[in-house]
Amino acid sequence: MLVTFKTDVGNIAMFGDVALQMIKMMGHSETIPGAILAEDLPQALSRLKNALANEKAPPPTDKDEDDDDKEPAISTTHRAIPLINLLTEAIAADCDLMWE
Question: Domain locations in the chain?
Fold first, then answer.
């Protein structure tokens, strides 16, 4: 499942499990579809950033010769960058955020 975050300044899509995690970090229930009003976006962005700062990084993996086909671990913070950028732009443009 993909979840698309939509604003007047742009859209991004995320895999469902990651998107639900981000929605929860912003302080909202994991319901789809959903929305955050423009006036509430600064607080949602702040909550997301605080939750990411408090999140523990995944343990480093040892790189073996046989691990060449394994995908590298991507942190939640790294996955959140597009959403953080979208929220920042939406706040500057004073527009709502919706997801479906």
Answer: 2-54+75-99
> 6 near 97, Cβ under 8 Å?
yes
Alpha helices in 9-75 (DSSP H): 16-25, 41-54
Closest C-alpha to 55, from 35, 77, 26: 77
pLDDT tens-digit series, residues 39-60: 999 999 999 999 999 887 655 5
Give the CA distances from residue 76 to residues 21, 45, 48, 88, 90, in Å, rounded to whole numbers and listed in that order. 9, 15, 11, 18, 21
Residues 98 and 34: beta-carbon distance below 8 Å: yes
Cα 17 from chain centroid (whole Å): 10
